Each structure stands twice: as C-alpha cells, then as structure tokens.
C-alpha cells in the first residue's frame, strides 16, 4: 500500500494527482469549519493520529509491497466522509514524509487507500440506514466490521491490479504472494474497527459523528 512512483506511467501519476487534489479541495470546502464542536474535532484529530500509528506497524515484502491496517472505515464512521478524506490525506503525507512512500505517487496512493475505502464505507452506511433496521448491532457489524473488511479487500484487489498492469510485478507473483495477505488482513481490519467503534459509541459517543442514540437505541422499527 506504500506505492513507489517508478512503475507507473507519468500520465497516470499526473492525472491521479490532479484528481486527488480536486477531491481533497472539494472535501475541505464541504466541511462546516466554524460549526465543528470540540467533541467532533477531538474525535477527528485523535482518530487520525491513531490511524497514523496503525500505518507505522507494517510488514514489507518488496518495494511497493507492504501491509498495514487501514483504519479508513473507522475514521469515516468517527469523523464523516469529508473529514476522513482530509484526515487520511494528512496521514498519507506524514507517512510519505517519513520515507515510506514517494511523493510522486501520493495522488494515486490517496485514491486507493483513502478515497475508495471512505467512499465504500459511506455508501454502505447510507444503504444500511435506508434499508436495514435501526439497530446498534447492525451499526457495528455492517457499518464497521463488514465495511472495513470489504475496504481492505478492495484495496488489495486494486493495488494488485495496478501493479500487474504497470508491469511492476508478474501477475502470478501478485496472486500468490500479495493478494492472499490482503484477504487475511481483512479480518483483523474488521475486528479492530468493530471493537474500537463499540467502545467509542459506549464511552465517547459524542466523538462519533455517525452514531445517534435516538436513532439506534430508541427508534422503533
């Protein structure tokens, strides 16, 4: 997930950098900065720092091939889509500044590890609220556990596809030595997100922008 720029075409890197810049700017404009409460800011900043710590605990195989927990779904559930996109941009920038990735591939990496997981998590959250009963366990198991597991698998599939298409690594090597680990990582990703969100909505629900006691605990279906 820590992409290096060398294997990818300059056109792809430039277009992804432009697209990611526009999406980050759009997210920043949509945030009601002056209406943010102290609790929401604390949850957002604290979760972003926590995700950055997660990213430092990684295992590397080859250049551009490394594994770490994403935390994108948890950050989305805590801060909301737009703030999660900005938070992950800051996390990726700090991780790149530490020398774990290339600045040239920043835009492409952000689209893979931030935009796609956050968008998928937000979509599942919206779908669950519209179609499933307003239940605490649905919030934890669908919006947290299932969503974070699916995001890890999606990132793995997309990363392997891009590396294979760019010729960085042979497809059979990626299928045997890279992709299976993403599917294995999906389970700890889902478990950690489910556990942390369970604790937060019990002890610090004011930090979680997507959880509403009136909706999940008192609403009748």
Automatic annotation (TrEMBL):
<keyword id="KW-0813">Transport</keyword>
<dbReference type="Pfam" id="PF01891">
    <property type="entry name" value="CbiM"/>
</dbReference>
<keyword id="KW-1003">Cell membrane</keyword>
<feature type="transmembrane region" description="Helical">
    <location>
        <begin position="181"/>
        <end position="203"/>
    </location>
</feature>
<keyword id="KW-1133">Transmembrane helix</keyword>
<protein>
    <submittedName>
        <fullName>Energy-coupling factor ABC transporter permease</fullName>
    </submittedName>
</protein>
<dbReference type="InterPro" id="IPR002751">
    <property type="entry name" value="CbiM/NikMN"/>
</dbReference>
<feature type="transmembrane region" description="Helical">
    <location>
        <begin position="107"/>
        <end position="125"/>
    </location>
</feature>
<feature type="transmembrane region" description="Helical">
    <location>
        <begin position="84"/>
        <end position="101"/>
    </location>
</feature>
<keyword id="KW-0472">Membrane</keyword>
<keyword id="KW-0812">Transmembrane</keyword>
<feature type="transmembrane region" description="Helical">
    <location>
        <begin position="137"/>
        <end position="169"/>
    </location>
</feature>
């Amino acid at each position: 997930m820590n992409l290096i720029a060398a294997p990818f075409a300059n056109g792809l890197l430039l277009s992804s950098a432009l697209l990611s810049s526009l999406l980050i700017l759009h997210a920043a404009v949509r945030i009601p900065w002056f209406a943010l409460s102290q609790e929401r800011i604390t949850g957002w900043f604290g979760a972003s720092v926590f995700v950055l710590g997660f990213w430092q605990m990684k295992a590397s195989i080859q250049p551009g091939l490394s594994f770490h927990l994403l935390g994108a779904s948890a950050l989305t559930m805590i801060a909301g889509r737009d703030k999660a996109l900005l938070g992950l941009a800051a996390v990726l920038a700090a991780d790149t500044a530490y020398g774990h990735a290339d600045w040239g591939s920043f835009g492409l990496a952000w689209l893979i590890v931030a935009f796609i997981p956050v968008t998928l998590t937000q979509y599942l959250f919206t779908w669950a609220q519209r179609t499933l009963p307003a239940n605490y366990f649905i919030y934890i198991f669908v919006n947290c556990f299932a969503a974070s597991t699916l995001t890890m698998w999606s990132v793995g599939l997309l990363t392997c596809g891009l590396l294979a298409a760019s010729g960085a690594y042979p497809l059979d090597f990626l299928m045997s030595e890279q992709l299976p680990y993403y599917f294995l990582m999906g389970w700890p990703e889902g478990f950690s997100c489910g556990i942390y969100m369970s604790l937060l909505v019990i002890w610090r629900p004011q930090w979680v922008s997507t959880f509403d006691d009136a909706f999940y605990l008192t609403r009748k279906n």
